[in-house]
Every structure is written in structure tokens, then in C-alpha cells.
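Worked example 2:
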Amino acid sequence: MVAKQAAVPVPEELQELYNGDPKAYWDDFYVQMKGAFPAASLHGFFNDRAWLRTEFSELADVVKADAGPKRVVEIGCGPGNTLFPLFSANENPLLQLHGLDFSKEAVELVKKNPAFDPAHCHAQVWDLSDKAGLPSSIQPGTVDVAIMIFVLSALHPDEWPQAVENAWTMLKPGGVLLVRDYGRNDMAQLRFKGNRYMQPGLYIRGDKTRVYFFERDDLVNLFGPPLNTSTDPSLSLASLALDDAAADPSESDVASTDPQGTTTKPPTSTAPTIAETPAAPFDERFRFELLHLGVDRRLLLNRKKQLKMYRVWLQGRWRKPMVESNVEA
């Protein structure tokens, strides 16, 4: 299937167009959503990610009443799919939530949400791959938890190093980065036809937004493998929870149009092996500690349409070391 896609790639001139101003296509996407749905139902079009507090214990902890001052940043917040479920569950009077997105239309949706409370919530336009660094609302080393849910996949691979540096810069020592994104051979990848393939793993959707489908090694190369594997075998990539797991209860990042007709079966595939040595070096200056990296494979059945949908997602947790690396640039 992928070979057939690669045989009919997106023409070079169109790739330059799509890569030239990706924000504009995401703005168009949210404008179309606002036009297609009444204001009262638009926020319901996107699944609220309440399941994240179950999957990521750090998010359950920061909303507790006695958690103390905490700052959580949702990068690529869209209409606030993570921001508002966290705020609705919050019992911590000292919690600060930030929603960042490079689409001004998405940020407008966040600010217009009736649940938006300026005392605890902040929203700002910002590109994760901005070479100028952090947004004005975030100071270096002040974030406890940074969340990237289906965000890196919207960037071109050439933009990933800057994205990693910016995430590293905003986090406190000991701060945690939570990642969930599309995995290689996900149904959404395999169903693309001709003129959608841009380069290995990278495609353009019909709405002209980009999407990348990750291998495990992609994320290990970007953020870093476990530390001290030579002295502690329990931290090897083979043993550090690099597992196939049924993680979140939602079918996808966008709400199903037929939720009553969809059921989920547990994953049956076995995990592919992952190289102990990354295929390409990551930047030693921004080396995170890998806490967990798993693959979520699901067979979703739409009984009404008699469709089988094989979904693949990657989910990981990395921590910024308490002592930063002194590797020279």
C-alpha cells in the first residue's frame, strides 16, 4: 500500500506550497468547523480527553487540592480538548493551565468557550517549532507538565529539533513531557490514495493539513532513550514498558458520527522490535529521560457500516533531568 502511495507522490511544487504556510490550512480547518456546527455544538465535535488523567498519572496529580502551584501547558491545544477536561476536574486553587496553538482560529475557540476562566486558563497563538523560542506567557523552566497530543505529527520532520528544544526549555528540571500521536501503518495512513504521500511517514490530508505517522524509533531519537542502560538492565528499551497497550477509550481524536455503532476490541498484534541504538543521533543538549513508550493497537468495528478500522497510536512519557546536560552546542 505504501509503495503504491509513494509511486504517486505530491508534486514538489505543491509540497513547497503546503510546507510554506501550514498555519493557514489549520486556520481554514477551524473556520470550516465553525461554519459547519452551531457554536453550542462545536466543542462537542471534538472528543474531550478526560481519559488522559487515567493514562497519565501526572495529570491526575496536578488537579488534586493539595498539589500546590502547578503549571500545565497543552501544546497544540486546538479548541481545548485537554485544557477544559482538566479544568473541570480541578480541585487545585493554584493550578495554571495554558493552551498554545499556531492556529489563531483554534485559540479563539478556546477563549470563547464558556468554561474559559482567565484566573486559571490562558491561551495564546504560538508555533511549537518557533525558532524565536517560547511564547511571552511562558518563562523558561517554569512548566511542570507539557502535553503534546497529536501535535508533532502536524510538523515537518525538519521542524522537530526546534520543537524538542522549545519543549525542553519551558519545562522545569524534573518536569514531564506527555506525548500521544499517530503510529506507522495506522488506518488513516493506509487509506490515503495518490497525491497524498510527501516523504516516508509524511502525508497531506484532503484539507491540506500535514500528518506524520511515527515509528517508535522516531520518538526515541527525538527525545532520548532510557539512561544508564549499561549499568541497569531493567532500563533497557526492551524492558522499559515498550509495550502494546489499549490506552484511551476514545476511537480517535475526533468524535465518531456513529458512537452507538462502534465497539472496540483489545489489541492482538505483537510489538515490533526497536533498535537499542537509535538510527540517528538525538541532540544530547536536550536529552530527556524515557519513562514509558507504548504502542496502542486497536481494531474498531462500526457495526452499522460493517467496517473494520485498525488504529495505531504511540504514547510516551519523558522527564527533563534534574541536572541538565552540559554538552556544548
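The longest strand covers residues 289-302. The mean pLDDT is 82.
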